[in-house]
């Protein structure tokens, strides 16, 4: 049977840290579903449609990956996709407590679904969507931290906001 994992997240926007996790996840699973979470309580820079579109563009030549979006509980979404694995990444220790809490709650909600964690690559240890947005919003160069498409879309988003934002 095909082993399918869900990789859920906000991906606002997708970074090279996320990309590394996707590539490594694909070495373990037959198929990976990058699932962009729509959370009406969370303010995002990109709409869910924009986030999905960007990731699809970036992964268009990658096999065995599907990009989707969902609303509500991740475990429920996983079930609709016939998957019993939720893939998550771990960076600095600060991720640990939140991820532990989330994994325990998901386990309580659905005991047949497993959360699986991959340590980030040392290169992406301190990389987050939040820090990328912060830097880009002040005209900082984010090349090398996010895929090219994201770089371009961020430039567009922040165009004209600051005089040094080229
Ligand atoms: P969420 O809002 O659900 O935390 P994110 O888009 O921030 O969504 O992250 C999705 C997943 O990717 C999380 O498990 C997060 O820990 C992981 N992740 C984020 N940045 C990195 C990175 N630099 N390296 C490895 N994993 C990461």
Can you give a write-up of this model?
By secondary structure, the protein is an alpha/beta fold. The protein contains 6 helices and 5 strands. It has helices at 16-25, 48-58, 74-80, 93-109, 129-137, 148-158, and strands spanning 4-9, 31-38, 65-71, 85-90, 114-119. A 5-stranded parallel sheet has the order 3-2-1-4-5. Helix 4 (93-109) links the parallel strand 4 and strand 5 (114-119). The longest helix is centred in the middle third of the chain and has 17 residues, at 93-109. The N and C termini lie far apart (50 Å). The model has no long low-confidence stretch (mean pLDDT 94). Adenosine-5'-diphosphate binds at residues 9-11, 15, 17-18, 21, 88-89, 91, 95, 120, 124, 127-129. Adenosine-5'-diphosphate (ADP) is lined by residues 9-11, 15, 17-18, 21, 88-89, 91, 95, 120, 124, 127-129.
What best-fitting shape do the alpha-carbon axes yield?
globular
Q: Could you tell me the mean pLDDT? A: 94
Number of helices: 6
From the N-terminal CA to the C-terminal CA, the straight-line distance is 50 Å
Low-pLDDT runs of 5+ residues are none
Beta-strand proportion: 15-25%
Radius of gyration, taken over Cα atoms and rounded to an integer in Å: 16 Å
């Amino acid at each position: 049977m095909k082993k399918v994992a869900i990789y859920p997240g906000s991906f606002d926007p997708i970074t090279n840290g996320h990309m590394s996790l996707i590539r490594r996840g694909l070495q373990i699973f037959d198929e990976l579903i990058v699932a962009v979470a729509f959370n009406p309580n969370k303010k995002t820079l990109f709409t869910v449609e924009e986030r999905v579109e960007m990731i699809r563009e970036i992964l268009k030549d990658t096999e065995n990956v599907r990009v989707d979006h969902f609303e509500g509980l991740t475990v429920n979404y996983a079930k609709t996709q016939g998957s019993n694995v939720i893939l998550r990444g771990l960076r600095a220790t600060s991720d640990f407590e939140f991820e532990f809490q989330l994994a325990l709650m998901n386990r309580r909600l659905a005991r047949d679904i497993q959360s699986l964690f991959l340590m980030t690559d040392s290169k992406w240890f301190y990389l987050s969507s939040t820090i990328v947005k912060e830097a880009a919003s002040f005209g900082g160069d984010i090349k090398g931290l996010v895929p090219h498409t994201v770089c371009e879309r961020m430039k567009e988003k922040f165009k004209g906001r600051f005089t040094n934002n080229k």
